[in-house]
DNA sequence: CCCCGTTATATCGCGTGAGGATATAGTTCG
DNA sequence: CGAACTATATCCTCACGCGATATAACGGGG
């Protein structure tokens, strides 16, 4: 069988999952992540500062993200900002969680748990 | 004031979600819930005793389940067992979580987060 | 009949993590 | 100048998952 010890990591919290997704296409700094997530989820997930920076610390520790040294053009930079970049391990984690969600969604459909009689 | 914060309850933990699903069609006792969940998830979620009974206590407190007085036929009963039944609020919670998962699955699909290039 | 593994419920304590409150400081704009 | 916004960081508390442990009834084999 497959030696898939890799993606056997447990499920990601919604917070970590959304942070990783926000970094899939661009490096972002913390405050921008908060805005991006709130925007993409239409406000249903509003990360508080402590949640974000706590999560970032753990994600750095676990190798899901790294701090990026690349800075934007100096005329539109802000020295306070710290940019983060998703790692290959981070992308694997996103894939694993996406798979988990897809499987779960299939189970939900199979069991008819969604109200098919809308208001 | 808000008339009522209907299903604005936060997301369910996988543990609570799966326990509620196991009670959707039948009243079950704790030990049976553990086996049902492990079975349905093909072993990917194996509730420990402390997790189960801790969760049950909270779910009773929050009105997601009630203890059922109905017993099975006395010849196939076991006095030690305590049976639990899902409440309307519990079903609402399942629906809400199912919706959340379906939305998430759609977002996953839209963003192409599932590897379409296997191996 | 007794032993033992399984069934069944329950509690304790630890570690992790989410989030409110708070601190600090630079930036922008009236 | 000062208020609001941007930006990062830490403290503290609470909730929860889970290993460890306790207790006890059940059922079958020796």
Oligomer: homodimer
DSSP strand tally of chain A: 3
Q: Are there runs of chain A of 5+ residues with pLDDT below 50, and where? A: 1-6
Distance between the termini of chain A: 48 Å
The percent range for helix content of chain A is 40-55%
Protein architecture, described:
The structure is a homodimer of 119-residue chains. Chain A has 119 residues and is mostly helical. Chain A is built from 4 helices and 3 strands, in the order αβααββα. A 3-stranded antiparallel sheet of chain A has the order 1-3-2. In chain A, helix 2 packs across helix 3. The longest helix of chain A is centred in the C-terminal third of the chain and has 23 residues. The first copy, chain A, is elongated, with a radius of gyration of 17 Å. The N and C termini of chain A lie far apart (48 Å). The N terminus of chain A is likely disordered. The interface between A and B is medium-sized, with 19 and 19 residues. Chain A binds a DNA duplex (30 and 30 nucleotides) through helix 3.
For the structure shown, list the relevant keywords.
119 residues, mainly alpha, 4 helices, DNA-binding
Q: Topology of this protein?
A:
2 copies of one chain form a homodimer.
Chain A: H1 14-22, E1 28-29, H2 30-40, H3 49-61, E2 65-67, E3 83-86, H4 88-110
Antiparallel strand pairs in A: 1-3, 2-3
Helix pairs in contact in A: 2-3
Chain A binds a DNA duplex (30 and 30 nucleotides) through helix 3.
Summarize the structure in short:
The structure is a homodimer of 119-residue chains. Chain A is built from 4 helices and 3 strands.
